[in-house]
Amino acid sequence: MSQCTDPKSKKATPTTMHMLSAHVAGVLQYLSASPLLLLAVLPLISLLLVSVVLAAIKLAMSRRIRARPQDGNPAAPYRSVDSPELKTMMFEECDTIDKLWSRAVGLYATKKCLGTRELLSEEDEVQPNGKVFKKVILGEYKWQTYTDVDRRIVSLGQGLAALGQKPRNNVLMLAETRADWMVTAQTCFKFNYPLVTIYATLGEEAIAHGINESEATHVFTNAELLPKIKNVAGKIPKVQYIIYMDALNNKPAATEGFPAGIQILSMAQVEEMGTRAENANRPIQPPVPDDLAVIMYTSGSTGLPKGVMIAHRNLIGGMAGQCDRIPGLGPKDTYIGYLPLAHVLELSAEISCLAFGTPIGYSSPLTLSDQSSKIKRGSKGDASVLRPTLMAAVPVIMDRIYKTVMDKVNEGGKWKKAMFNVAYGYKLKLVENGSDTPLLNRSLFKPVRSILGGKIRMMLSGGAPLSATTQRFMNVCFCCPVLQGYGLTETCGAGTVTEVDDLTTGRVGAPLICNEIKLVDWDEGGYTTEDKPYPRGEIVLGGPNITMGYYKNPQQTAEDFREEGGNRWFYTGDIGEFHPDGCLKIIDRKKDLVKLQAGEYVSLGKVEAALKNNSLVDNICVYASSDQHYAIALVVPNHKHLKNLSAKMELKTDQWEELCNDPDLEKEVLKVLHKVAKEAKLERFEIPQKLRLCSESWTPDTGLVTDAFKLKRKNLQSHYSQDIARLYGS
């Protein structure tokens, strides 16, 4: 590891920059004997000198102190050195989200705002295994301007008022990410209708729970989800109106079969209602900073989802901190929106983009790239058409991109593979030392960059830890910084974000300018602020972005949120350590720490992070029990690599189910993972001793992972209970 990637190292080690400086000095000494030759190569030497200076500046910036504990005590709260006083707003005059929107409309009225691709055709494609996949061909993006969207917001809000919706009464959203989702959200913010968000992939029990607990009478959804709501229609007695967004394929919505007390309307009908003379001039009661903006139901990874109450001032504060870490955000950028808007990362990112005049083109995980599963072969994915400059991504999506590219490299023949590896290794050393390779960027890495449109200048990763391998891959091949963030729904997604000039990996950055962070001793896990070389403990966040608590759940609110020292704090349950430059590293999680029979602690997330980048692994869940002396693993294998392994073993079958149930193949995969674990320097007791190959992919629709692809451990444990019992010999 070079000196710039180790914040604790004070001793300088040789770097690419030092070597380059020495070479330049040597060349100058040689050329001094020949003035004409010196004059001829002077432009090249100047370019090299500029590169040396720029690299030196980047290295110096990467090593700077970013946050400090307030009184020098490692147990005290850390604050960003850039803002000793916590920042509460993005713009002084905008203390609510509707004011942010009004400001943006005034500045960017005729500019592009929200874009959606036109569906040209749709067809069924039969796979070799008999499964039928929907394939689409999409056209260009069609754009609504800020003024267009603002007109729709006013019409929709007045239409809702005509249907009996009152300020400070909840409106519920159960829909997939799209432009109409954001139009509805901005309507709720403007008219002071608290927006209740529920993940579209939640099960029926969780959906009914959220609707009933929020007491919403007006529910928004998209036409494709109407059948799902119909299944719980008899269990949601307070709902009066279900308002649907038209299907993207223009198919008629299935509006029949709902109880008589529920009226089904299209979003267009409600907007038209708001333009009528008798409704158009109803007075608007705007929100104040302490009013509820959102009740965001979590993904329910540990049971029924909890509703997090987010005030306008909370979201404003959180976005102020996040936007501070995105230099140059403005109308020249384009953002691609495809993650669930019911997730605080995507919602705050999109609202921030709109506030700065950055247009949003909508996509989905199934249509994101040319290789996405729903894109017909030979046609363009959304990123190729939109060519965004900014995007957010959860680590599982970046991991998939990494594995896809590396698979293609390995298939390209020995010469191409060798050339890529040499170029990759060369650029990796330069990137780690603050330099770059413009020629390689425009040649060898150009096809890789084109996967996401070729213009990405910055990526934001959140929702789960991002491996150092994947982060460096994105840096090298996509030629852009990857800002790794840490935050929770309860903190409006804000907490920390790495800075563009931070050349390290594996960390989540310093506290944002909107909040402070302290570590609290966790004696049971053996983490204290007195630990060496770094203070460690439970991560606790305080600041204006800390939300109001859990909706109708005072007991859980009292456990996780506390008023201390005149500040409001949220106890995250995550374990972290602060490095000398004030950057935070997530090292554990209370709920992921399991004590084995012999007393050793296994961090499930740590083991999963070490193993998941192996090409054989598409997904992995490590399981351990306190009455057992070893851990086990549930592994979703990669189709291609598992079949290649089975061919080498000369197994008689190539049927997927049979392969996943083959005990010899299980043992062979376990050997591979044991090797990976040892290379990652896992302790013996941390390495899974047995595993189950799972033939079923884990998607949000299965209920085994959240919409952000976090593992639902309880659901996985229940789903694979018989396999777990077998692996433990019971």
CATH class of the largest domain: Alpha Beta
CATH topology-level name of the largest domain: Rossmann fold
Main sheet: strand order: 4-3-13-12-14-15-16-17-18
Number of helices: 24
CATH superfamily of the largest domain: ANL, N-terminal domain
Query: Can you tell me the residue ranges where pLDDT is under 50 for at least 5 consecutive residues?
Result: 1-14
Question: From the coordinates shown, what is the CATH architecture of the largest domain?
Answer: 3-Layer(aba) Sandwich
Fraction in helix:
25-40%
Largest sheet: 9 strands, mixed
Assembly form of the protein: single chain
Using the alpha-carbon principal axes, give the shape. Answer: globular
Please indicate the percent range of residues in DSSP E strands (runs of 2 or more): 15-25%
Report the structural category. Answer: alpha/beta
What's the domain count? 4
Number of strands: 29
Q: Termini, distance in Å?
A: 45 Å
Arithmetic mean of pLDDT: 90
Give Rg in angstroms. Answer: 27 Å
Explain this structure to me?
The structure is a single chain. By secondary structure, the protein is α/β, with parallel strands linked by helices. It has 4 domains: 61 residues; 206 residues, Rossmann fold (3-Layer(aba) Sandwich); 205 residues, Rossmann fold (3-Layer(aba) Sandwich), CATH 3.40.50; 132 residues, ANL, C-terminal domain (GMP Synthetase, Chain A, domain 3, 2-Layer Sandwich), CATH 3.30.300. It is 36% helix and 21% strand. It contains 24 helices and 29 strands. It has a 9-stranded mixed β-sheet. Strand 22 and strand 23 form a beta hairpin. Helix 4 packs across helix 5, helix 13 crosses helix 17 and helix 14 packs across helix 17. The chain starts with 15 loop residues before the first helix and ends with a helix. The N terminus is likely disordered.
